[in-house]
Amino acid sequence: MHPIAKADRLYVWHPFTQMRDWAKKEPIIIAGGKGSLLFDIHGKEYLDANSSIWTNIHGHNHPKINAAINRQLQQVAHTSALGLANVPASLLAAELVDAANPPDLNASSRVSSPALPQGHRLKNPLLSKVFYSDDGSTATEVALKLAYEFSRRTRPESKPRFLSLSGAYHGDTIGAVSMGHIDLFHKAYDGLLFKTDQVRAPYCYRCPSNKAAPERADARTYRQCRNECLDDVEMKLDRQARRKTPYAAFMFEPVMQGAAGMIAQPQGYLRQVAGMARSHGTLLIADEVMTGFGRTGFREGVAPSLFASHQEGVQPDFLCLAKAMTGGYLPMAATLTTRTVFDQFLGKYEDFKTFFHGHSFTGNQLGAAASLASMELLRSTPVQNRRIQLQRVMSDELASLWSLPNVGDIRQEGLVAGIELVKDWRTRTPFDLSQRAGLKVCEEMASRGILTRPIGSILVLMPPYCTTPSQLRQMVTVMGEAIQKVLKR
Q1: Domains, the chain, with CATH or none
Q2: Distance between CA atoms of 20 and 447, rounded to whole angstroms?
Q3: What does the longest C-alpha to C-alpha distance in the chain come to?
Q4: What gap in Å lies between CA 50 and CA 461, rounded to an integer?
Q5: Residue 89's closest CA among 132, 138, 55?
Q6: Model confidence over 437-454: pLDDT tens digits?
Q7: DSSP 83-139
Q8: Which of 43, 59, 61, 385 has the largest count of CB atoms under 10 Å?
């Protein structure tokens, strides 16, 4: 066994990993990377098909981001944000606020909803303040604390309560876990959590109200849908309002839920749900840790935006960002909010209205420098054109997987896709988690030079934006071959 593998086995505890199984084989040890490629210590080459857990959008060893970090290293790597400002974090905050408030958003904000008058225009708040933290969990934790305290100060007669979607996953800190509804991840910590409510997520493929027969030609068509999941949201909001205690906030992943199984929301769903929440005085928290920075791509007839919420004409009161913010280089996160929320924390020193929350590496200069370089790349025409091209190539290539009897559903938004494996597409019978269908397929893909990680029986494809069309075709081809080989057994 390689010495590095021995050290790993002796001392490292890996996240979301059963370590008893880990000890049975020698792991892939990454030693380098370039673009969409990663290299192990033996020199074997792999395509990074999930952007190193959904983070590395521009590829590895990008010259512009490398140069930005090196320039900052010549100045200073880190100073405290408690009582001090710094150059790159201040410039980045201005860039994030600019990106989070696209000028065309109000023009696309008309909504038709049972809870709102026809043609009602959503009130789109201006996101103007940026609070930095370390990762996606802390970004959502900040939003929860701010929403809780804002609600407590503006509605002193009520106890703040929160709403989120079934299957939600918003991170691993206690507040974020409290907002989650995946028993496998969260049930063990019930005794530590505060109570939150959930509403049915629009999981169309497994919708309990869907009466349409599965059709192989397009398994994503559900002709019998009557928007029952929207009815559930309205019922919960109404019930809470009748108690004279409207929800403090509704937290959601816009357009596509990640850890829930890459659950794509029907077009128009988020816009209607946001309208319902606003009509009940409930704040909106958009968890764009996975979907942000262009990951969900482009939609016909909708102006390009870096954030998925804007594809639905929705502007949240809190926008939570992390993962791809630094281009996948360094841990850094941000929570954007409004002046209205910010003002509730202003007062005399002795009033103690300060937001008593912080992180040692808040506004870290290296992370901010990398993020500024990433933002510049995202705004460039060549990168935007490449994303459009790759989105179309991905859609065309994924269509080839429909012919496989163990592919039940394919869900794609932009450059993120989930391929749901089932025992038979006709019955939609799921694999039991103990069968490890997704994990075995991914292991076979790794042996063929493609790295990704499943969510149960859902295969994830989320390539860096620098991926070439031929590399993307290779990812999908190998996935199809691995599905056939593993599940045929």
Answers
A1: 3-61+383-488 (3.90.1150.10), 87-379 (3.40.640.10)
A2: 21
A3: 69
A4: 6
A5: 132
A6: 999 999 999 999 999 999
A7: S---HHHHHHHHHHHHHHS-TTTGGG-EEEETTEEEEEEP--PPEEEEEEESSHHHH
A8: 59
Between helix 87-100 and helix 365-379 the angle, nearest 10°, is: 40
Tokens of residue 50, six digits: 């999930």
Tell me which residue has tokens 């969260």.
186
Q: What are phi and psi of 287, to 5 degrees?
A: -90, 95
Is the pLDDT at 113 greater than 80? The verdict is: no
**Would you say 435 and 472 are in contact if contact means Cβ atoms under 8 Å apart?**
no
What residue has token string 């981001």?
A: 65
- Which of 352, 483, 463, 465 has its CA nearest to residue 46? 463
pTM of the predicted model as reported, rounded to 2 decimal places: 0.94
Please give the Cα distance from 199 to 269 (Å, whole number). 13
Q: Which structure tokens are listed for 251?
A: 């937290």
Name the nearest CA neighbour of 167 among 204, 131, 135, 193. 204
Residue appearing with tokens 């606003």: 278
Give the angle subtended at the CA of 313 by the CAs of 307 and 316, to the nearest 5°. 65
- Specify whether the CB–CB gap between 369 and 375 falls below 8 A: no
The residue with tokens 């002795």 is: 350
H-run or E-run covering 46: strand 45-48
